[in-house]
Amino acid sequence: MDADLEVVDRCLAGDKQAFAELIERHKNVVYSLAHHMVRDASEAEDVAQEAFVKAYMSLANFRRECSFRNWLCRITTRLCIDHLRAQKPERQWVLKGETPQYAAAAEPEPAEVLATREELALALNKIPAHLRAAVVLRHLEELSYQ
């Protein structure tokens, strides 16, 4: 993603508006990841916002060993894990066809898709939060293992 790196360079050069481009490009994946991890739309919005603030404040530490998107997903994942650790007791995962705030409204899902989503939710409830991130990133966000 050379385009992201160019925008990062502009941010580091003092262009404060450039970071808005990065937010626009990555807000869906950050919110979706946070929503899958914390399982609450409002809390996911808070975590996503915090992730972008943290990324902006830490931009000088971005080492370019991975894509900006992957770096941002790592930040989001860590914030989600911290958020979940702070909650007691852990809530149960629910996937009942919620439409994330940034996603376009979709057609109603067939019954078999909803049943599969509920099975997935039950399985994800059995995985500790710190391991759940890897499953969500790989299989729901379709990121590589790297």
Describe the model.
With 146 residues, the protein is mainly alpha-helical. It contains 6 helices and no strands. The protein has helices at residues 2-12, 18-38, 41-57, 68-86, 111-125, 129-140. The longest helix is centred in the N-terminal third of the chain and has 21 residues, at 18-38. It is elongated.
Short summary of the structure?
The protein contains six helices and no strands. The chain has helices at 2-12, 18-38, 41-57, 68-86, 111-125, 129-140. The longest helix is centred in the N-terminal third of the chain and has 21 residues, at 18-38.
What's the pLDDT, averaged over the residues?
79
Q: Stretches where pLDDT falls below 50 for ≥5 residues?
A: 99-106
Radius of gyration of CA atoms, rounded to a whole number: 16 Å
- The computed structural class is mainly alpha
* Residue fraction in strands: under 5%
Helicity, as a percent range: 55-70%
- SSE string, helix = H, strand = E? HHHHHH
What count of helical segments does DSSP give?
Answer: 6
Main sheet? none
Shape: elongated
Q: N-to-C terminal Cα separation, in Å?
A: 15 Å
Give the strand tally: 0
